[in-house]
Amino acid sequence: MSAQTPVLAKPHLNIATLGHARHGKTTLTAAITRLLGARTAADVAPPARSDRALDAAARGALKSTRVEYETGTRHYAHRDMPGEAAAIEHVISGAAQLDGAILVVSALAGVQAQTVEHVLIARQLGVEHLVVALSQVDAGEAAAMERAEREIRALLDAHGYPGGTTPVIRVSALRALEGVPRWIGTIEALLDAVDTVVPTPERQPGEPFLLPVDHALPRAGEGSVISGTIERGTVRSGDRVQVVGPDVEMAVAGLEVFGRPLTRAEAGDPVALLLRGVPHAVLRRGDLAAAPGSLTPRRRFTAHVHVLPGARGGRAEPFATGYRPEFFLRTTHVFGAINPPGARAARPGDTLTLGVELSRATPVQPDLRFVIRDGGRTVGAGTVLTIEG
Ligand SMILES: Nc1nc2c(ncn2[C@@H]2O[C@H](COP(=O)(O)OP(=O)(O)O)[C@@H](O)[C@H]2O)c(=O)[nH]1
Ligand SMILES: [Mg+2]
User: What is the pLDDT of residue 58?
Assistant: First the structure.
């Protein structure tokens, strides 16, 4: 294949499996892969900082893997997310790039802690469209399935998704993988629902290029490769890009979409950029590659923030001025102080406008969405309103 060949004749979407650990996300991903003859990309998340305490076996389970496949109408990049609480960072940094998601809920176990947390994060980071796979139904009792479906619809309603009309497709990925036609049909029905429910996204290929970096890897003898999903704009081989973080600027020496060499990639494409001569050690997840001069790191902004009530996984206590949780913005996270308006504290359940001062300047812009975490819990979420400095 020449480097100029356009590979994607169909619209491209980014989706993921979300949901609690051991509810069947990886098995479902495998069943879809088997059905549609997908390819697995060599794109596996290295352990995030918070994973380091875990042993190697546990870390293996926390990686997210990406596959690609085509239905009759669409091309999908599908990320199989980890469901463990310790891996939530991967879900947060991946969710910002999703056009839709498959929420996997076991018919045996029903809604569990990370089912709730993933729905919350998806909603807060702007994932507008969900399809539910009610999984492991070959092993479930009818009454348990009905109960699980009711819990799911109530959860979706509680987070602003249409619980009444969201497709809840009963699947057995394990039996489909074993080749049982009836169960293969359930995977086909799920994919039809995704094709129907998730609209083709509108991209912004004409905006200044921006790539939040998911991974940075060394490429022997050549430099480094950074990868992620392009948030906006277009990049061509030879374009100059600035990497905000290490603050280096260079020409893109080559680019790949799913391991295929191309000369151009645009908003929505999962891409890897070769940065010749840049040592891997200066690059990291959370950096931003962008059109030179198009980004200004900022520390102070105002934001519209929803403080999660304790009943939804948040804190029981209010936030007072000077509270310093962690802000998850695109693929990075940074501590910041919260300053509620006037002298009042922000109480769990409040939705209000407040000031934020980050400990490290990071490019932010109005409408950027973020998640606020503290002590291993998602305590709030918000949207940037105005930049203050
Ligand atoms: N009976 C049954 N078991 C399943 C099905 N899908 C997954 N499992 C089992 O559930 C367990 C967890 O599955 P896995 O895909 O790893 O879950 P993940 O943690 O959500 O990725 C494994 O033991 C699977 O074999 C299914 O459709 N039916
Ligand atoms: Mg898994």
Answer: 40
